[in-house]
Structures are given as structure tokens and as C-alpha cells.
Known about the structure:
Elements: E1 5-9, H1 14-26, E2 30-35, E3 55-59, H2 65-75, E4 79-82, H3 89-94, H4 97-120, H5 123-128, E5 130-136, H6 169-188, E6 192-197, E7 200-201, H7 210-219, E8 224-227, E9 233-235, E10 237-238, H8 239-252, E11 258-261, E12 266-268, H9 269-283, E13 294-297, H10 312-318, H11 326-339, H12 341-348
Amino acid sequence: xxxxxxxxxxxxxxxxxxxxxxxxxxxDHAVINVDKLTYAGNLExxxxxxxxERYHFEKVDICDADEIKRVLTTWQPDIIMHLAAESHxxxxxDGPGEFIQTNVVGTYTLLEQARAYWSSLDGDKxxxxxxxxxxxxxxYGDLPHPDDVAPGxxxxxxxxxxxxxxxxxxxxxxxxxxxxxxxxLRTYKLPTLVTNCSNNxxxxxxxxxxxxxxxxxxLAGKPLPVYGKGNQIRDWLxxxxxxxxLVLVALQGEIGETYNIGGHNEKQNIDVxxxxxxxxxxxxxxxxxxxxxxxYVQDRPGHDMRYAIDASKIQRELGWAPQETFESGIRKTVExxxxxxxxxxxxLDGSYQGxxxxxxx
Length: 361
Ligand SMILES: NC(=O)c1ccc[n+]([C@@H]2O[C@H](COP(=O)([O-])OP(=O)(O)OC[C@H]3O[C@@H](n4cnc5c(N)ncnc54)[C@H](O)[C@@H]3O)[C@@H](O)[C@H]2O)c1
């Protein structure tokens, strides 16, 4: 395959940086990373690849139309992979405005600039252009939970045709952006595709999210906060498996299609927390088991009870399958945090020190 120039928005974030590392380490494509560097953006996550001649960074807000125009004109990308977003449900409960701004207005701005740029192209460059919008399974709302149905009832999964029913300001803003992207294809023929993925975990994850928060609180001897009864179910996917899926879709996905991406790893939050404790008991033992640090806290308002993805379409049509099981991926993740103290200590010296967010009060 000819090497392409891929513009990645949000490339300094958790998933974006995994995409950029994968593109630089495992392909010949060039990367333009467009990121505003909010609290969640961290150039240290790109240290393994930032010296590559194929990597370029542009500190730009996707809501800034003039700057996006300049970046597109300068770098002439073949593909846009749009990951930049406000991504934390709890923060969206405390302050939804930023989510509407970046996720809705920012996506609109990027679509309009992409359309102008794409219209200016011709020949193979125009025919091959793609706008890949990266979204979440949270747009579908939540699914029936095993505790709420009769034993033996078959539980449904999210498919690409599940109707949207977002519950939080975050998922509503992502749902809006997905629909904008689809309408730019239908109305303007901008060649777009969309992916909706389940919860990711892995290295370089900002410690406000469940898995890194639990690992770092456990190591610090702090309480391990579990929302409500801890029986909420998520379908966990190792971030590097997601990055591989995204690059596959960007390069080989069909225009106009949606692909659901998931790990076939439905776990209750409490079981995730207990698994982390067991791994830590093994690799970094202390006097008392880490499980003794678990504390149950008031649940998140509007908390979705269950997400689970049917990823059969991307497996069937593009041949993608996750390489990590939950057991292998979670152990790698715990070990990564144990071995990368410099990365997370610098993050915790910033604006976030592990405090509870999103109580809605
Ligand atoms: N984390 C998950 O489990 C998950 C699952 C499915 C889909 N997603 C989606 O994947 C994408 C990436 O998620 P993540 O977890 O890596 O998020 P993240 O919060 O770790 O990173 C977001 C990145 O976007 C940048 N950004 C934010 N606002 C910006 C703006 N206005 N202009 C330019 N850059 C801006 C931030 O600086 C940061 O680097 C998001 O669109 C999210 O909705 C996430």
C-alpha cells in the first residue's frame, strides 16, 4: 500500500496516542497530530514516536476554522481520523458546555473545513479521501442487565443498527457528532465512516477513569471508589486492539458504513476492581490484600447499567479480532503503571489528583 498522510485529531489523548504510536511503529504512513492539549492531552504519551520524521504535531483547537483550514492546506492529508473530544462522562455532568463545544461545534467545524479541502482536490487524491469519525457505544444508551431479567434470558448486544438513546451529556454530544458526520455524507457526499467502540483500557490512560484510578489509588493506599453496587457492566477492549481496528477501518473500511468495535469482555465494575487487586497482590504484595481498600460510593446520576458490543461486522468484513483477552490486557496494564511512574506522577502533579467528579451536585 502507498504511504498516506493521516491527520489524527486528539492524537495526544489516550486512544489517539495509541493510534499515532501504532501508525508510526507499524506502518509507513505519515501522521499529523492535531490536538489542543486540554487537561487530557499529553505529549509525553507520544515520546516513543515523536522523533520520527513521519510525525508532526500541530497545537490547534478543532473549533478554530481558520487554523484547521491552514493545517489541511499545509499538510494535504489523505485521511482524517477524528478522535478529539471531551471524553469523561463525570466531567460532562459537572460541565456539559465544553462537551457541546468540542464534540458538536468542533466536529461541525472540522466537517466544514474537510468538505472545503476535499472539494478542492481532484483525481485519485479526491477519490481516495476519507473522514473517519471515532465514537463510542455510549450513544446507544444502556442494555438490559442480567440482574433485571429472568435467568436464562438471552441478553441483547449493540449492533450497528441499534437506535441511539444517549443518557449523559457526553454520550448525547457524541451522538450529535455521529449524526452530523452521517448527514455530511448524505447531503454533501463527503466520504465519511463511523466507528462506535466499547470502553478502552491500557497504558497512558488518564487517571480519572476507573482502571487507572483504581491502580494508582491502590498503590497509594487510598480508598478504591466503586460507584453504587459496582454491578454496572462494560465491555472492555485493550486500547492497542482498538488502535489496530481504527487504522484498519480508516484504510479499508467502506465509505458510509458504521463498524462497532468491542472486546467480548463483559465485566461488572466490581469484578474489574477485584481483578486489579488480585494482580497487585501478586506483583506488588503488601501486608493486607488490596481488596480491603474497596469503598462503595454514591452512584453516578443516570448511570448506564450495561454496555455490550456485537463486533461481528468488523470481524467478518475487515478480518479484525482483538489480540488481548481481558486477563492478558489488564495484567499488561497494571504492569505498565508499575513501570511508568514518571508518566503518571507528572499527570497527577497537574490539575487532577484523583478527586471524585460528576456527582451532579
Ligand atoms: N476512552 C474510551 O473508552 C472510548 C471508547 C470509545 C470511544 N471513545 C472516543 O474516542 C475518542 C478518544 O477518546 P480518549 O479516551 O482518547 O479521550 P481523551 O480525553 O484521552 O483525549 C482527547 C484528546 O482530544 C484533545 N482535545 C480535546 N478537545 C479538543 C479540541 N477542541 N481541539 C483539539 N483537540 C482537543 C485532548 O487534548 C486530548 O488529547 C473520543 O472521541 C471518545 O469519544 C473513547
